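In the lab's daily routine, each protein ends up as an entry in a very long ledger. A line of letters takes care of the sequence, but it says nothing directly about the fold. The fold becomes a row of whole numbers, each drawn from a learned catalogue of backbone shapes. The protein below has been through that process, and both of its lines are reproduced in full:
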Amino acid sequence: LFIVHGGPFSFSELAERLKVSRGSISTNARILRQLGFIERIGLPGDRQDYYRLSDEPYARLLEGYVARLRERLSLVEELRAALAGSQAEAQQRLARMQGFYTATLAATEALINRVRGGNGQG
């Protein structure tokens, strides 16, 4: 609905158009907001909250993914440091995991740039 119409939509409008409960709208709107896909706005003279498609929703989804990848990479780096000099096989597996996260971060950051139009094809 947000891709086709953009919004803004109130909870009631979303529930009616999608034929789902307000509770389902609340749960899913919260998730979509956390992911950066939609945003809550107010309309002048109206006390209800409305939701609309975020500016650059795909880049925002990817930015959230990058943040989670950075957290995981940090944990891998901490674990490698804690195991320094011991458990050679674990160190090798962790090194591969660290390489995976590092490469994934670089590729995802390049994709964000592309999605934002950094290379003219966004």
The two ends are 22 Å apart (CA to CA). The beta strands are 9-10, 38-42, 49-53. The chain has a mean pLDDT of 92. Helices lie at 2-5, 11-18, 22-34, 57-82, 88-115.
